[in-house]
Amino acid sequence: MKKEKLFSLLRYIDNGSLECITSLFLITLSLTMPAIGLGNFGIQVIALSMIPLINVRFPVAALPLALVATVWLNAWADHLLLTGFIVYLAVEYATSRGRFALALILGVEWILIAYGVALERPLEAKDSPSLITEILLILVAAGTGAGRWKILSERKQRAITQQEIIKKIRTDIAHYLHDSMARSLAIMIVQSKLTELEPDPKKIQEKLNSIAKIGQEAVADLHQLVRHLVVEESAEKATAFGAWAAVSIHDTVNSAIQLLVDAGHVVSFDSRKKNYKLDHIAETAFALAFNEAVCNAIKHSPPKANVTIRITEKAQSLQILVMNPIGDWHANGESAIPGVGIGVESLTRRIRNIKGQVCVTSLQGYWKVVISLPLKCEDS
């Protein structure tokens, strides 16, 4: 409740209401002064109109002081009363809005009116103290406004940053749900269709157990996601999203091979026996990206397809290849060719974030993904 009241007060101050109310108070106070008159009262009201006009894009806020000079030159007023204080408030407000040039114009206009037009005689040495005081008051008003401008700018920047973080969190949630939840559901669908075609009751039970296990893992992963959103701070959510999913490269690949086998595909796997080392974030990114590639292989390959997975070293990089045939239905336009959807976009984004590269090609009935990673490796 207190926070809401504070924000309401800040908004109230931001739109110039405080300056307008203070100016009205000064004008009311001037009614008690002996020099009050209709013309003198009027120039204060004209000066007050500067403050709301400061929010206009074109510098029309400079016009009221020109009108004040016109009123004075036509002898419709003979005393400035508290107009100077209203000008100080206008300079302060203009500066707080970041309109520094306008604040300078208002300050110069007021000096010309107070020590030129209204003085009605040449400026003399005895006027120097009051002139210096006037300039200092204008500078104090501008300095106060500059301090407010800095605070307001920082607050706006924090709000923009917060919105960017929220947007990134939402994007990460969408990608994570696609990478993890959609993958699990796709595998469960494939498994259920294979179960319908399986005549052996023992194998049917195995496949049903596998579907149940995938479903349980998906639910557990979703619980981790919810816990992560509840516990972590906003900035951490945006930078460490899905960090709980990190596993080694070989564990990720071996798990994916098992999924392909469970889906009824024949896997050809070739890898040199090395313990490839990546940092925690890189392992997470690779696991999610590689699982996306394998999920596409499961979804888009014909039944019992030959899927090739190969891990090779080239210079200081590690290349992981996934290649699978494309089902005949793609040629009939019933499904899009892999490589153009959110899955490949997410895959590519994750690998590039860890300074890797992704090459996706679809040629002569085969879909091929090559993931290149900078690596550290140790012989096992």
State the oligomer.
Answer: single chain
Strand order of the largest sheet: 1-3-4-6-5
Low-confidence stretches: 234-244, 329-340
Distance between the termini: 61 Å
SSE succession: HHHHHHHHHHHEEHEEHEEE
Instruction: Report the strand count.
Output: 7
- What is the molecular shape? rod-shaped
Annotated CATH homologous superfamily of the domain at 247-380: Histidine kinase-like ATPase, C-terminal domain
What is the residue-averaged pLDDT? 79
- Level-1 CATH class name of the domain at 247-380: Alpha Beta
Q: Name the helicity range.
A: 55-70%
* Gross CATH architecture of the domain at 247-380: 2-Layer Sandwich
What is the third-level CATH name, the topology of the domain at 247-380? Heat Shock Protein 90
Cα-atom radius of gyration = 36 Å
Proportion of strand residues:
5-15%
Q: Helical region count?
A: 13
Largest β sheet strand count, sense and barrel closure: 5 strands, mixed
Structural class: alpha+beta
